[in-house]
């Protein structure tokens, strides 16, 4: 049977169509085991993000990366978007990796990797961009601050995403009772956070270091810190120190007036009993030190030390009592009369006790019933009791026991 040329051509076309359908079915069947794999990525603003798409089984099917705006970035190894920040890292039948440098907040979003099978298969990767907080600043401090005044220090930082955390420290000790405020920036992506430290100025805070610390995941465990040294002005604190705890006539004594204040107190003023020092020749003032030589009873009294600075003044007192060394010796020597009296009383009590004991033994010289002299409770005396108990005078004499 001979086929016409037209019929033969139609037969060849039909065979080609059948072969294409079979190939397509095989391709679809093979593509059922092909899936692109991606991972979410987090990067700090200004850093570099690496996007990787992998396929374990691939029969030469193309891979493509597209951005959140569905713009193609790379199709296999061919760059599709003119952006110098986007570069090809690796392209093969099993992987398509690209990098995005100098990442900005606008780059954040969902990126898509497409595997061009029938049907097309996709995998999503979300790119998170962290906003780095700006270096914090402390405001509200005026120097100097008077003791007792209220202080309000505010620490502020902007540009963080998510919102940063602020902590206060005073000399490395954390202060917990603070106010915290979070506000969204105009770009609606980052935040401005502030915290306020409120306290009353105290002299113990003078020279203290107050620090504001900003913690954020973009800082890689290295917080940003702002510091402020406090300067507190306060009235002097005055104290007198004596060189002699038991001053005696003829001795010397040195009284030192210690004063601490800010600003530094002026030279101190010494007075006695509310007036000037009565004997400048023996009572010499050298700065904060008062020296008194050749003490006598007339030096007894109340000595006052007064210190002042521009903030105020303060004073303290010391009561001086000069002792008589002879009276002291008489008081501290042994009291022989008292000791002799005590000894006499002890001896007398001992003798009386011995005499009473001897009289008692003499009056009870004789016998007492032993355990063998039973049943003689009604006898008039001990001898009779023994005789009645045993019925024999001889036995009674044998059962007597005498005190010697």
TrEMBL record:
<dbReference type="GO" id="GO:0007156">
    <property type="term" value="P:homophilic cell adhesion via plasma membrane adhesion molecules"/>
</dbReference>
<dbReference type="InterPro" id="IPR036179">
    <property type="entry name" value="Ig-like_dom_sf"/>
</dbReference>
<keyword id="KW-0812">Transmembrane</keyword>
<dbReference type="InterPro" id="IPR013162">
    <property type="entry name" value="CD80_C2-set"/>
</dbReference>
<feature type="signal peptide">
    <location>
        <begin position="1"/>
        <end position="23"/>
    </location>
</feature>
<dbReference type="InterPro" id="IPR013783">
    <property type="entry name" value="Ig-like_fold"/>
</dbReference>
<keyword id="KW-1133">Transmembrane helix</keyword>
<feature type="transmembrane region" description="Helical">
    <location>
        <begin position="337"/>
        <end position="357"/>
    </location>
</feature>
<keyword id="KW-0677">Repeat</keyword>
<dbReference type="InterPro" id="IPR003585">
    <property type="entry name" value="Neurexin-like"/>
</dbReference>
<feature type="domain" description="Ig-like">
    <location>
        <begin position="136"/>
        <end position="228"/>
    </location>
</feature>
<keyword id="KW-0393">Immunoglobulin domain</keyword>
<feature type="domain" description="Ig-like">
    <location>
        <begin position="236"/>
        <end position="321"/>
    </location>
</feature>
<keyword id="KW-0472">Membrane</keyword>
<dbReference type="Pfam" id="PF08205">
    <property type="entry name" value="C2-set_2"/>
</dbReference>
<keyword id="KW-0732">Signal</keyword>
<dbReference type="GO" id="GO:0032809">
    <property type="term" value="C:neuronal cell body membrane"/>
</dbReference>
<dbReference type="InterPro" id="IPR003599">
    <property type="entry name" value="Ig_sub"/>
</dbReference>
<feature type="domain" description="Ig-like">
    <location>
        <begin position="36"/>
        <end position="123"/>
    </location>
</feature>
<keyword id="KW-1015">Disulfide bond</keyword>
<dbReference type="InterPro" id="IPR013106">
    <property type="entry name" value="Ig_V-set"/>
</dbReference>
<dbReference type="Pfam" id="PF07686">
    <property type="entry name" value="V-set"/>
</dbReference>
<comment type="similarity">
    <text>Belongs to the nectin family.</text>
</comment>
<protein>
    <submittedName>
        <fullName>Cell adhesion molecule 2 isoform X2</fullName>
    </submittedName>
</protein>
<dbReference type="Pfam" id="PF13927">
    <property type="entry name" value="Ig_3"/>
</dbReference>
<dbReference type="InterPro" id="IPR003598">
    <property type="entry name" value="Ig_sub2"/>
</dbReference>
<dbReference type="InterPro" id="IPR007110">
    <property type="entry name" value="Ig-like_dom"/>
</dbReference>
